[in-house]
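Today's session is about reading a structure prediction critically. Students often jump straight to the picture, but the first step is always the sequence itself: look for stretches that repeat, for charged clusters, for runs of hydrophobic residues. Only then move on to the predicted structure, which in these notes is written as discrete structure tokens rather than atom positions. Here is the chain we will use throughout the hour.
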Amino acid sequence: MKIALVLGTRPEIIKLAPIINKLGKKNSDVIFTGQHYDYEMSLQFFNQLKIRKPDHSLQISRSEPAIQIGEMLTKLPAIFNQIKPDTVLVQGDTNTVLAASMAALKCGIPISHVEAGLRSFDWRMPEEHNRIITDHISELLFAPTLVSKKNLLSEKVHGKIFVTGNTVIDAINIFADMSAQKAKLEIDFTDFVLLTLHRAENVDDKKTLTSIINAVIESGQNFVFPLHPRTKQKLKLYGLYEKFVKSKNIKLIKPVGYFEMLELMKRCLFIVTDSGGIQEESTSPKINKKVVVVRKSTDRPEAVKAGFSRITGLSYSKILTAIKEAARNPTLPRKTSPYGKGNTSEQIIKLIHKNI
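Below is the predicted structure for this chain, in token form.
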């Protein structure tokens, strides 16, 4: 059995690390597209998580999504034809996932989709397009929860569906205990809120981004904000960057590695974010933090139902109210994560061997 794992972004590296580390080099090939904004930084993630270096790297251009996908569609078939995998395994909903799945389909290779069935029902999200297409052309669909399985059943996908949990919990179980020793952080604030923003529907929209920024500043909470390059670019474009720089309650820091992010999540009072992955990670017993989700909708409703996350909408007043309410009572009782116990990667490998 030969499995080709195709990945291109930091979240994919993190979530596929437990699977890669359980597969030997003899029966798997790691293909890295380089979709991430910083190719070298992504390779550092491989080193941090002790994953072997990619067997194949595409290093695609920093261009618009359609061109990136086109480049991957052009380059991936040659690699697939060379290594002749029994299945192409992808994770999530990135442009890499869409391109790898389409290339595998046209090469006659079964697709195995990790984190299948997530739905925001928000067509503004590019990720929604990618995940729906991928789910409908996959042979094996590894749904993290029953909610995800129900989404797939309602759409009548043709592939086999398995509820497995999410590999992000596997990763935290492996790496959270070592993050304090591995992380390189210099944070002056003691009681702080972690802030992350990167989604296109938020940072590319001036009105939305202004609402979020104003609410964060006016909340009066101390924030640590690892600033994504895309977000920084938009803040400067819209004349909002100086507001952050001048504010006394926000510490801007450069993008951080995985261990640093784990430490920030562990140390903070609570989290304000538009990240889907952080909504999942926060439910791990090793993190266990409240999350204020600055979005109109979420593809992780399980975290909301379990009491970890709250969706604010995108108005200034609602975001500000949610932040203040979380600040008044930031402590979260110990809860069971809806995304599994940390054995998802083992289940997925066994199911691939049994069904491909």
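Discussion point for the tutorial: The first helix runs from residue 10 to 22.
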